[in-house]
């Protein structure tokens, strides 16, 4: 994909690349600190890298056709790895993101009506109300240092609370954020035994995660109980995601979710919806602070727009391209790892049961054979007449298990960025480079301070 540009694009900072000859145990040590720092230059140049992962072969795939095969054509042959299950099950349980087989089919069919474009459009007023409140609060803090990462976390959590339950998160937001921070900082990092042992063999960290899960599910159940106490008028249309999920029925069997299943689904939607969107918005604001010219283009596009409906959101073509480019450089899920259930042929190589397939959007989105100037911030590449290969750009995954909430997340991200940049000019106060690191999602190594001024 060739990109013509009138000016030299910015290249945001990244971790140093690992030596290609780093030892297995050296990589294990780095994984605990920053997974994306374990890959060397070969991983950004070669289409397939074969190695060993304990007793099995491993493959890093950067070839779109091979990725299509694993995620689409033969997706049923691949399941999550033990480490992946250990990292996600304590917070997501058996919700849609982790379910397999018939359980996944049931959940996907049942939840799909809640995430149609029409259903998303009905939730936009919740988003705009929270954005109005956020902008009003920020207007009192112009010309002083602000932590926009924390503000984005609070804002997207409030949007998640209102779109899910129709009530604000002032009372419960701090507790929920504490759960997220506790898990990410203490329990969400992979350790050697997490990767070496099958899921049926508990590790010391698994016991701590189990204790966390008990507290976490009790908290989510309490939120659901509060929402149910509010009730819903008989015959009234659904007013939030909870109504849609509580009333959802499998179109084939008529079966709905049990209370235990509903806890896992609500946890999945709140966490996947608020944390990844907050992080994407932080990175977008950081990039626009580094690139004032692109920031002004976003502001120009939003000028005079009401931005309170899906029609308005769909008109923000350049802002959408900025979000797309942000998620290329900082993909929410930096790694998708799958274990083979049985034999297969991938990219001409023989795959056996238990072998590990790694599809890393962090690598794929920066691969030197797939992208022109892969490390540069060039939003207009997503306005080209030649879009990237569907399996070379995976911010929300691909195939049958593509993120069900992608339309919601995209609408929220575009709307929020357009409204914020339309209202404020954003600059960095902190000159220290922000380095991305991978722990569950692609996070910044620190929260820089910004200065905002009213336009």
Automatic annotation (TrEMBL):
InterPro entries, per database record: Cyt_P450 (IPR001128), Cyt_P450_CS (IPR017972), Cyt_P450_E_grp-I (IPR002401), Cyt_P450_sf (IPR036396), Cytochrome_P450_monoxygenase (IPR050121)
Pfam families for the chain: p450
GO molecular function: heme binding; iron ion binding; monooxygenase activity; oxidoreductase activity, acting on paired donors, with incorporation or reduction of molecular oxygen
Residues reported in the UniProt entry to bind heme: 403
Keyword Transcription: no
Record keywords: Heme, Iron, Metal-binding, Monooxygenase, Oxidoreductase
Requisite cofactors: heme
UniProt cross-references to PANTHER family, sorted A to Z: CYTOCHROME P450 (PTHR24305), CYTOCHROME P450 12A4, MITOCHONDRIAL-RELATED (PTHR24305:SF166)
Annotated family: Belongs to the cytochrome P450 family.
Listed name of the protein: Cytochrome
Source species: Bradyrhizobium manausense
